[in-house]
Amino acid sequence: MLTCWLRETIQWIGMMTMY
């Protein structure tokens, strides 16, 4: 559960940072 959330958060932050 935590791993899924962490992965999703990291991906979201990565997208925001890239943008």
How much helicity do the residues have? over 70%
Runs in which pLDDT lies below 50 for 5 or more consecutive residues are none
Distance between the termini: 27 Å
Order of SSEs: H
Q: Based on DSSP secondary structure assignment, what is the total number of beta strands?
A: 0
**Percentage of residues in strands:** under 5%
Class by alpha and beta content: mainly alpha
Radius of gyration from the alpha-carbon trace, in angstroms:
8 Å
Q: Please give the largest β-sheet.
A: none
The whole-number mean of residue pLDDT values reads 90
Overall spatial form: rod-shaped
Number of helices: 1
Provide tags for this entry.
single chain; 19 residues; mainly alpha; 1 helix; rod-shaped
Give a verbal description of the structure.
The protein is mainly alpha-helical and 19 residues long. The chain has one helix and no strands. The mean pLDDT is 90. It has one helix spanning 2-18. The protein is rod-shaped, with a radius of gyration of 8 Å. Helices cover 89% and strands 0% of the residues.
